[in-house]
Write a structure and sequence with these properties.
13 helices; globular
Length: 373
């Protein structure tokens, strides 16, 4: 959703700072200063300054990089800062802002259980803690147990809620997006990002823009932002590079960094619409994820999976571990030694044009994008 907000606000001529994580290819992607990636020399200077100020006290990687981002934002004029929380909310480094203009909670799913809790209610409680007194809070579509926790947290701090379903909604397809705000309906072109979930993200961004105090963003800027938005590594078709060049005529290669049950469901929805060609996956995942939960929604749509370890990542599951998880979901899966080997094996399997989706981790997506840069 951050990508949509940035695109809309910049289309309206606003200077926008952005802090997101993780990065895909270069760390600089995490910090955008008034629309531009932070330069290497300035990033190095800021991190050095934060290290001096920290004076040897315990600090995590994410904490010191967040401090550097905040320092950069303070030194560079802008109209708005878009902050994406790291893992959760309550104890997140980004949650030090006492009075944000607006908070937003996208659909909560089971993720980062070793940090946030093993139930949807526990995870929602962590995420709901970004809500602040008298600060508008826009809530995406939630399962009932998550929504109950979020609503209670908002009530405790008197945060006015704008809930999916009762206060805002949407419908849409390739022909356009219709966003309901209260009793009014607004029409927009279809968003540039692929996937049914991106209709939700786009509509939620429009709702946030509508509720954002102090800004009047024209509908023309919203429409322009929706159609010009870019988000590498998320349902992205790869158009060139060494892996794509291996493909026979008529084949497609896609990339997505989603890694949890919700991401598996999104990919399954895309696969449901892709019945014109067989779908093969190349998957690598971190050991902090539950690969079986990712694979479950995909069992009916995938021909086979080739699994890989994520290059350069100590926390990667082995190709054999990821393959075992896929097999437990009744998906045929075979470990491969590398991405290159996985692509070659899949090409040998299919006598007709097919799609290959490389998926399972943003770190794997970053590696692929570095190859195709």
């Amino acid at each position: 959703m951050i990508a949509f907000l940035r695109a809309i606000l910049e289309a309206a001529g606003k200077r926008v700072h952005v802090y997101t994580s993780p990065h895909l290819v270069r760390f600089n992607e995490r910090i955008r200063l008034a629309g531009e990636l932070i330069p290497e020399d300035r990033l190095s200077q800021l991190l050095g300054y934060c290290e001096i100020v920290n004076d040897g006290q315990p600090i995590t990687f994410f904490e010191i990089t967040t401090a550097a981002a905040f320092r950069a934002f303070a030194e560079t004029p802008a109209d708005i800062v878009l902050l994406e929380t790291g893992l959760g909310g309550r104890f997140d480094s980004t949650n030090v802002v006492k009075q944000p203009a607006l908070t937003a909670i996208t659909p909560v799913s089971i993720d980062h259980v070793q940090f946030l809790g093993s139930t949807l209610a526990a995870i929602a409680g962590e995420k709901a803690a970004i809500q602040k007194q008298d600060t508008p809070s826009v809530i995406g579509e939630q399962q009932p147990e998550a929504l109950t926790v979020i609503e209670q947290a908002a009530h405790e701090v008197d945060a006015p809620l704008t809930r999916y379903g009762s206060d805002w909604g949407f419908s849409g397809d390739a022909s356009g997006l219709r966003v309901r705000l209260g009793s009014s309906i607004r029409q927009y072109p279809a968003p540039a990002l692929k996937g049914a979930h991106q209709l939700h993200n786009a509509a939620m961004a429009v709702t946030c823009i509508d509720r954002l105090p102090g800004f009047r963003i024209p509908n023309a800027a919203i429409a322009e932002g929706l159609t010009r938005v870019s988000w590498p590594g998320r349902m992205q078709r790869l158009g060139a590079g060494p892996l794509v060049e291996k493909l026979p005529n008529g084949w497609e290669m896609w990339l997505d960094g989603g890694h949890n049950a919700a991401a598996g469901a999104v990919l399954a929805q895309m696969a449901r619409e892709w019945r014109d060609r067989p779908l093969f996956l190349i998957c690598g995942m971190l050991d902090s994820k539950d690969p079986a939960e990712f694979f479950k929604p995909l069992a009916d749509f995938v021909q086979q999976v080739r699994t890989v370890g994520i290059p350069g990542e100590e926390a990667s599951l082995s190709a054999a571990q990821t393959a075992a998880a896929a097999k437990s979901c009744h998906i045929r899966a075979i470990p491969a030694d590398s991405l290159d080997d996985a692509v070659s094996q899949i090409i040998a399997l299919s006598p007709k044009p097919a799609r290959i989706m490389i998926c399972g981790s943003l770190y794997l997506a970053g590696h692929v994008l570095a190859l195709h840069h």
